[in-house]
Structures are given as C-alpha cells and as structure tokens.
Amino acid sequence: MEKKTINCEVCENHCRMEAEVEDGEVVDVAGNGCMKGYIYAQTAVADAPD
Ligand code: SF4
Fold this sequence. Notes:
With 50 residues, this protein is α+β, with helices and mostly antiparallel strands. The chain has one helix spanning 35-47; strands at residues 2-7, 16-22, 25-30. Bound molecules: iron/sulfur cluster (SF4). Iron/sulfur cluster (SF4) is lined by residues 8, 10-11, 13-15, 32-34, 36-37, 40.
C-alpha cells in the first residue's frame, strides 16, 4: 500500500487529498470535499503511475 498526496484542482477549494494506491489503482481517498475529487485522484494516479 502506497500513499500519495494529490491536490484536487477541479474547483476553487483545491482540496488536499491523501490517496491510497495499490497495484497502480486508487483504493481509497481521504480529504476530498466531494466525489469529483475521488475521480480526480483516480485520473491523476492513472496518468502518473509511479
Ligand atoms: S474534491 Fe470536490 S470540493 Fe474539493 S477541490 Fe475537488 S471538486 Fe472541489
């Protein structure tokens, strides 16, 4: 299990999120203000797998 810090840039809140990554996939996200952040984290990890 790996943790990544991702800043959501979908809206002006710019939530700072902690994503838990396993085998290159996001399995949990904390700190996101809404589901858009969850999706943003998945996309960010998929675009930058390491
Ligand atoms: S997680 Fe939601 S509320 Fe937070 S910055 Fe992203 S879009 Fe905005």
